[in-house]
Amino acid sequence: MNITELTADALSKAIHARQVSCREVMQAYLARIEAVNPAFNAIVSLQDGESLLRQADARDAQLARGESMGWMHGMPQAIKDLANTAGIPTTLGSPLMRHFVPKEDGLLARRMKAAGCIVIGKTNTPEFGLGSHTFNEVFGVTRNAYDPAFCAGGSSGGAAVALAQRLLPVADGSDFMGSLRNPAAWANVFGLRPSQGRVPMAPAQDVWVSQLGTEGPMGRTVRDVGLLLSVQAGYDACAPLSIAQGGHQFRAALDFDPQGLRIGWLADLGGYLPMEDGIVPVCEQALDRLRGVGCEIKPATLGMPPDAVWQAWLVWRRALVASRIAPFLLNAKNRAHIKPEALWEYDQAQGLSGSQLLGASAQRTAFYQQMLGLFEHYDYLALPTAQVWPFEASQRWPQSIVSGGASVAMDTYHRWMEVVIYATFAGLPCISVPAGFNAAGLPMGLQIIGKPQADFAVLQLAGAYEQVAQDVLQRMPSGRRAVAAGAAGYPC
């Protein structure tokens, strides 16, 4: 049995059937991490192996007594380095937080631990989770699972690469501006941004306004994504706007007939979004797979000026990101230790008025109503997951996008990620599914957006897609080739 190749669902069943011990699982994953992680730098703050094996032995003893903690019993899990983990550093990728060790788990880690997982360390993230390129001055750069010369995306880049390279059976992440979706696309795995409020976040600096970011699941299969969501989801009083419904529904079988489902293809929004050559055709090939199982694919338009959505988004993002950076700037000397992109976010928000934020909120409301109108004509909406293919790891962010021979300059460090804001801004569930590869062998994903709180329906359609996309899903990265390439070294 190749333990690290098992899906998380299959691994859980094998552990509970006593076909494999929790110690054997831990040994297999630690060996895989030792062999492969140096080339990719996906897992950081790895804990002592002997301590982890003792925890695995304790899980085995529980099973011997007929006791199971839950679906994740004995599974190794590394938590994204933005979420608090008791006794393990939570650095946020910031030199200012290099030595911070929380005394208590955040809600996400607490729920996964309660389901039986063993936390082996953290997954790497950009500084403060900003930008879709996972690098920081604490741990360095995380490299693409399919070619370490390229970036992994972010901010859940470490989680996505750990999945693709079989360093974890399942992974958690978070998503403010595509951070569960973009790295999933660039690792050929599944990443779900749940509905707003589906997965409560605690502790949190603000529980009333900061609703654009959410934690959520990533997996090698849609079934694994749903099962992890079942652990993460559910109301918590610490998050008063969280959805009351529990997570048990996501354990159900995903089988259903997609015949006749209407999918609105937004593509590049009529040319508004610059996209590198090859991305739209690869995503259209993915849609053809859904057409082959009976879905109706129809061109769709956003129905309102995309730039108005972007400008409203910028106001919201500036306000929310600046509030996260502000505590670190109470000491003016800290500016020298914060990356320029984070300082730009903070500086852009200075002078922002309450009336401006409320105006952007009104624009956001109008956008949400427009999305509801689209769902009167379509059951799902679809977009590419990214506007560029994975770029070189030495590049901080794409300065321009070249499409059809024309170069379009990016006016912010995140403008090249604009394609992911629509699900976020409307609070809608959205999954990135593997769509295909370019000539260089680098992967791309397709976003599938569902109706409000229709997370399970999104999983069902993704599951139907998964059944007919095995040609893409079975294209695994070569661990041996990647390890050899990583040994040669790549510049940050």
UniProtKB/TrEMBL annotation:
Residues 24-459 form the Amidase domain. Gene3D superfamilies: Amidase signature (AS) domain (3.90.1300.10). One of its GO terms (molecular function) is catalytic activity. This is Amidase. Pfam families: Amidase. It comes from Rhodoferax sediminis. InterPro entries: Amidase (IPR000120), Amidase_dom (IPR023631), AS_sf (IPR036928). It comes from the Bacteria.
